[in-house]
Every structure is written in structure tokens, then in C-alpha cells.
Sequence to fold (383 residues):
Amino acid sequence: MIKIIQIILIITLTFSATALRVLADTGIKIGLLVPLTGKNYEIGQSIIKSTRLAVNKINNSSIEIIPKDTKSNPLDTLKAAKEFQKLGIKIVIGPVFNKNQAYLDEIKEITFISLTNKGGNNSKNIINAGINATSQLNGIKKFIELNKIKKTIFLTPDVDYKNEIEKAIDNTKIKIIKNFVYNTDPTKLTQQIEKITRYEIRKQNLEDEIVRLEKSNQANKELLIKRLKKRDTLGSVNFDSIIIADFDESLKSVTTSLLYTDISPKKKYFITLNQWFDESLLEEASVQPLYFPSINKNNYEDFSAEYFEKFNQYPNQLSFLSFDLVGLVYYLILQNNSIVDEKIFSKKNLFKGKVGIFEIKNNKINHVLNFYKIENNKFIKIF
Fold:
């Protein structure tokens, strides 16, 4: 992969003078479909600001970003898209939410780069650019292979993205023993984890061994019994690592239940999905080390600092992605001889942005992510 990236032109919003002159002659308009009113208007405003930053970085006056309001509604999204159609715009960043894609396949001459990370749409003119489950599992797969981890189980919450996880497991061919789907209800969770980890059997093993030693004539049985009584269970589990596809308090509930069943991150790898550097996890010392794929942390922090300096507020995660998407569109247009059509996302290509490396092929975008661990209350980059 490294050699391929070195061969292919990689751009971080910096382009040659020749390429700039080409676009200066032709001009390029990029539509932006975001919520500008309603409960999600702050997301839309933040995305507009980040795209403005990106255009300033490119420093080419021929690029124009034209925003329109989706009102977080599929019909209003379609109406705005038709206005783009009348303006002759061929490429649009947005919409933000998966539900707002509902009618966009009606406008086939426009390519929409949605910020959602959900898959499932079969429309060739809609490309989901969010950090999807496949990208994340590819990062986890690389980590597992580097560490020669042989036995991995998967824990997936019974929520709306469950199917996304199942598809990603198939897409990546990641080697797991089994995918356990669990109910996130705290009153049921621990019992489910007990079953997965064979807790009752291991607990009974310990009690049986203590009884056996007490009845035996073994010379050092008092010392052995004393040691056993400091333990919670006795016996092994049939896995070396656990991938937990969860977030926030639900993730913490799962890790707490694992600790309760005597499964420790000091002995088994605790791996999760992209946590966007949730600092509350730094306080969870008992579940460290905790491993996860993610965007480039240094770039994220640099972007946030620059955004704050410019706008006196911090960006959301979608702003970070939309910043890169402006550069990505610009780069692909240059690669396509300044022609804006549906083909620019069909060719195999790589683009290095602040998020990380974008892989483009057959109207799909995946991300090559970095990998981190939380240990000693710090985020530490692994690769």
C-alpha cells in the first residue's frame, strides 16, 4: 500500500500552477446540501465554515461553493437538488443524513457525496463518504494480523447499524469466531456477557477446585487455597480479543460487564470502533488498554485549532470530513482533465486528506485509517 501511495499523486489541498490555470479558465461550482434551518442548523453552519476554509486553502477563485437548505427533510432535499440541476451543477457535497438521500436518484446527472457513513444505497449517483464500518474493520483487521491474534469474538449491539456491521464483517473477511448480538438494556446486558464468557462455569470451576484442595492431602494446599480465594474464576475462554461495536455509555456498560465476568484488558485485547478521541474514555483506567481505528489525531487537532481561531467555536466531526471533501472533489476534477461527470468516482484513485487516505473505486469511498490505543490515560498512535 505504501509503495502504491508513493507512486500515485497525493494531494493535500496544494496544486500545481498549471492545474490552477486550467480551472481558472473553466470555473467549477460545487453544490452543498446541508440543514440551514431547523434543529440541525448548527451542523449545516459548521460545514459551510469548514468548506470555506478548504476553498481558502486551495486559493483558487474559480471554485464556488453554493449551499442550499435540506431542512433535514427528504422532499426539501430533492427540491434543493433540482435547483442545483437548473444551475448546471454536476457535483454536490451532501446531504448530511442518510434519510435525505431518498429521492436523489431521480437526478442522475448530479453526483452527490453524502457525509453519512451508512451504506445500503444502490444509486450510482450517491456516494457515501463517511467513515464507514468497512473502513474501520479494515483497520482492526490490520491490527489483528500485525499482532498475530488468532481468536477474536465480535460484540454487536442490537441497534439500527447492526446490519452495517454484519456487511462489513463480510466485506473485510475479518477472521472472527462468532458475532454475538446483544441487547443494550443494562438489566439484561451483564447476563448476556456472563453467557458469552462462560462466567458461571468458570466461577463453579473455582469453587470446585477449592473444595477439592480442602479435601486433599496435598502438602501446600493451604497456600493454593489462599491464592484461589483471591480469584473470581478458574478456567479459560475461547478468545484472545473482543471487538465491541459500541459507543459512549453503552460501550462502558459492555466493558464493565466484561470486567465483572473476570475478563481483563490486561489479558485480552479490548478493541472498539472509531471513538473520535472521546476524552471520557481516558478516565476509564480499568478498561485500558483499549484499541480503536480512527482518523489522524494530529490533523484533527490542528484543524480544530485553525477552525476555532477563525470562527471562535469548535467544529463538529462532519466539518472535518467536509473540509477534506472539497479538496477531494478538486483533486478528482483535475485528474479527470477538468471534466465534471459521473466517471470521476469510478476510477481507482487515492487521495490524502486530513482525515487520512481516501480510497476511491467504483463510486465508493473507503478510508485507510490510523490505529490508536488508550493506555495510562493517554491516546497513543500505533500505526
